[in-house]
Amino acid sequence: MNSISRRQVLAGAAAVPVSALAAANLGPRAAAAQTPMVRRADVPEVKLTWLEGKPGAAATSTWGTPWAQGAVPADQTFQLTAADGSAVPVQSWPLAYWPDGTLKWSAHAVAADAPADAYTLAAGAPATPATVVKVSDHKDYLDVDTGVIRARLRKRGRELISQLWRGDVEIARKGVLVNLRQERIEEDEEKTAGRDRFESEIHKVKVEQSGPIRAVVRIDGVHANKRGKSWLPFTVRLYFYAGAESVRLMHTFIYDRDGSKDYIAGLGIRFKVPMRDAGYDRHVRFVGDGKGLLSEAVKGITGLRRDPGAAVRAAQIAGTALPDPATWDQRVTTRLQYIPEWGDYSLSQLSAEGFTVQKRTKKGYGWVPVDQGKRASGLGYVGGVSGGLAFGLRDFWQRHPTQLDIRGAATDEAEVTVWLWSPEAGPMDMRFYHDGMGQDTHPKQLEGLNITYEDYEPEFGTPYGISRTSELTLWALPATPTAQRLGAMADQVRTPPQLINPVGQLVGSRVFGGLFAPVDRSHPVKAVIEDHLDFLFGFYQKQVDQRHWYGFWDYGDIMHTFDEDRLVWRYDVGGYAWDNSELSPDLWLWYAFLRSGRADIYRFAEAMTRHTGEVDVYHLGKWAGLGTRHGVQHWADSAKQQRISTAVYRRIYYYLTADERTGDLLTELVDSDRTFLVLDPIRKIRTEPYTPDPHALSIGLGTDWSGLAAAWLAEWERRGPKAEVARSKLIGTMETIGAMPNGFVTGSGLYDLDTGRFAPVTEKTVSVSHLSAMFGLVEVCAEVIDLVDDPAFEKAWLQYCRLFNATRDEQTAECGAHFGNLILKQGHARLTAYAAVRLKNTDLASRAWREFYTGDGYAPTLPWTSQRITSTLNPTDAATWVSTNTTALYGLSAIQILALVPDQIVAP
Fold first, then answer.
1. Domain that includes residue 250, residue range
2. Is residue 710 situated within a structural domain?
3. What is the spatial order of strands in the sheet that 118-123 belongs to?
4. What is the number of structural domains in the chain?
5. Among 822, 843, 872, which residue terminates a domain?
6. Is the backbone peptide bond immediately before 401 cis, with ω within 30 degrees of 0?
7. Mean pLDDT, consecutive 10-residue segments, the chain of 908 residues?
8. What count of other Cβ atoms lies within 10 Å of the Cβ of residue 17?
């Protein structure tokens, strides 16, 4: 399928022509049949680098590495060496397997005090770490010891981390989740709604990994108040690395209300921090924009009317222990009791463009404004010269409204709260945004769809079951850190260090079906296409910032369609607003990264995956496993479908990072075929009566089956608890699709939940939608055809690939009827290219290039530039010819055609 030989890939060379396919690259299934299992000594080495370059301080990282089928035994052990050849301790475990039992993805974790520029991963025995992370299991708690810090994790109660020590010094205690609930939202000038405080209530604690380099503890529970009421289920994972002084915390909660009552007025995590030092040796730090620093002492001795001495002042500024007060100018020493102690500090980031800092002496007394800034890093510290706690929230300003609070720093025990939702911002408004406008029947709703592109249905625009995951880091420090150290910590909060594989390894392993190749500008036409791809990504990257696509629920998504008259995106027009993965921008971005290794594309795709996998998908309730179509609110549209929740949008990030939360999302979808019992995706347009039957569920062979197949594939290759069932359903549906006279052209089938197969079809049926293949079906089919030997299924898919952009006469001759008026022909050009390679047909290869240029997408004659607009609220760049649907399909078609038929270029 992919015309790149493994030797050429590893050398970074260009692809071979289609004519060489049979000899050069038979695909992993065929290759595995001809190649005996390799010995451990034959496992190739992989050169690893840091995504953004070597970190400036101690760093930890977990990543996944792909392997070609048959290349690595399932029980392979690995060693890691730094660029200078020194051995680096590494922890490894399997993520996925090929059908022949060899390793497909391996996961690895490293903790480096002094990170190297690059590393080499190879077969061998891992080096023994000088310090290991240990998990000790006791009746009521777990103790996790990194060799530097130790945490006590309770199995029941409210405290996730009951104590955190560095050596014998207790740095923090009583770590709980905190939530403020407000019954109703106040309107206009009304200010009467009260707030109720909830804290974490632990239900289950599980050790998922126990070292030697990395330990992971999962904690599940709910938020509960003193009266026994509970809501907002949560999952918190705590990550500990050998020799590390930090704890990484992944916080996920599920919103389990319909949005009409019970509002989140504050959501965060809170710790108590013992304060042992004198007031003048206690410190508060906030890192603001860049590495700007608020550096304060609880009891300041600078700027006084009397000078304690230069050495004393310098020590306080540096955050080191002050000399004995007996050595100071006694005019200061004898009056220390009259210097205020500032115990409370607050940094609030209520928008993407501004934060404020204020402080006060203690509760009940006035706040004093300190300063303002634009985009805070999300890092703070409270403690003293004998130790303290640093705390950081990733995407702090991007996910506003956020807040960092320090209370009681002048007492024996300070309180730190990292607010994921700031209580100063007002309650989180999850209400639906309009009253339905009389759309109480399906005909009326279809009329609404025809004017605003919103698929409305009463009671469907609910946030019940959506979720959000946030990432925090805690440091147990021996003393107040220097400004330089705080700056480095802030950098790691903003951009956690990430090790990545070389592009050659990602391409050569063919783990995602061989649909991408390294960026290649060796031909003038290729160079132009690469320029266009770069323009499109750069344009959206700028739009995120210029249009302020930020906020707690919004960050990570992009808009669907531009309004050429208002010169803004159609943020308030039905289905034209938030994109919610429409036509696979997720895949465009991930494939763009896989072929380039670019850090900026990776971070963009990462934010989108975090958003679309959590916010656009239901994780609780009757629609669990389904996602919501594009709209003004991420949950507003009544179309709840597999095409948005599909695992194909999450798998790439999961395998690149081994991220457990993303793994949860894949697991959730394994049984999502059962959602068709409760919701018919095409209920509004059926012409015949239909009642869901578990033995005859109507399931589309495009957007529906591709989502199910992606989930089954992930479970099978990960060897999850339902792997055999998933494999059976995947292969069963493939066999029964292949047995249909018109295969994928049939459009839909009757699926049996018990057998995992479609009912036999005896007559040729034609039902083709332009959307069927545009939500991951292309990518799923490329993978399963490589993995499963089913010639009938491959024939059915190649038929669809050949005929979608073919003439009506060709469609009728083969299928009995033509496909109707179809659009998205440029997006489907990659299907033609795929068929060209599989069938070794150079005519199809040339046709694919013509379709790419002359289809209904972006033409080569477009301006491929943006214009500066000053008439909007803020100056922005606009390209009125750009739409996200077309961008995603252009990007995927360009990437895949360049990989599949690079040497059959037809000039535009």
1. 134-273
2. yes
3. 87-88, 78-82, 118-123, 46-50, 499-500
4. 2
5. 822
6. yes
7. 33 32 36 41 91 95 98 97 96 98 98 95 96 97 98 98 97 98 88 90 98 98 96 98 98 97 97 98 97 97 97 96 96 97 98 98 98 98 98 98 98 98 97 98 96 97 98 98 97 98 97 97 97 98 98 98 98 98 98 98 98 98 97 98 97 98 98 96 90 96 98 98 98 98 98 98 97 98 98 98 98 98 97 98 97 93 97 97 98 98 92
8. 15
